[in-house]
Amino acid sequence: MVLTHCSLEGIDLVTLNGRLVMADAPPVRQQLLDRIAQGNGRMILDLGQVGFMDSSGLSVLVSVFKAARLKQGDVVLLNLTPAVRSLIELTRLQQVFAIFEDETAAVARLRQADAAG
Amino acid sequence: MIRTLHLKIDSRSECIELVSNAVRGLCRLTRLTTPDLAGIELALVEAINNAIEHAYHGEPGHPVMVTIDLAQDRLSVRIHDRGTPMDPRQLDQISELAEPDPADPNTWSHRGRGLILIKSCMETVEYRTDQGLNTLIMSRPIHGGSPKPA
Question: SS3 of A71, please?
């Protein structure tokens, strides 16, 4: 699992590439939590290159989302592959995560939340 | 005709991908659709995760055995371990996930999510323990007719 990061005017855009499974979950969770701690809690997770995720990977997303909320921030998901979308829908977490297929819309959502906060 | 594949890995999470890849390759011999294949892989990975995490308490150095039977119209997978057995009633007690409430973070995580995913992705799921050998057996039909010829 490879993580790349860039900042879009205060919003962290993190791109994950590979499988997000039990073996990868601890280091990926730590890197993302560190990023949330260092930033302002607004994060876009681009999962367009994550072809497979299990429940351990899902727990990483939930941990990061909770950490962001504790900072009055938010995490949105971008570009879900069919396997990851199916996992999120099976666990009904689409009701918790905002999901986007367009980066501009994801940024707008976080800016809106920022303005409201 | 049933074609059978036996695999054995060490109880380390890094080894699970080896089984995943083998099963994906095997499923390409069938007419399973990509979403069906993803569901089988998810059930398999969750079952091995459970064996490593719960039966062996995350301890490496123990065997996890996987047997896959590919029949004309059905795929069956057995995951064996020799660790702490699961209470088989857990399978029946877990039906479906509670609805997560976006406003309540306590509802976002659920214990037993792996078992629910296994039950969602497979048609039949059983668990038994015999003389120290725990076996999770799961199967689902292969839609779309017979497997591709060997």
Answer: coil
Shortest CA gap A73–chain B (Å): 14
Question: Does pTM top 0.80 for this prediction?
Answer: yes
Q: Do B16 and A92 touch (CB under 8 A)?
A: no
Domain segments of chain B as ranges: 3-96+107-141
A22: closest chain B residue by CA: B13
Express each pLDDT in A46-80 by its tens digit: 999 999 999 999 999 999 999 999 999 999 999 99
- Per residue in B49-99, pLDDT (tens digit) is 999 999 999 999 999 999 999 998 999 999 999 999 998 888 887 766 677
Four-way CATH pick for B3-96+107-141: 3.40.50.2000, 3.40.50.300, 3.30.565.10, 2.60.120.280? 3.30.565.10
Are the beta carbons of B24 and B42 closer than 8 angstroms?
no
Which of B42, B122, B113, B112 minimizes the C-alpha distance to B75? B122
Complete DSSP assignment for B63-103? EEEEEEEE-SSEEEEEEEE-SSPP-THHHHH---PPPPPTT
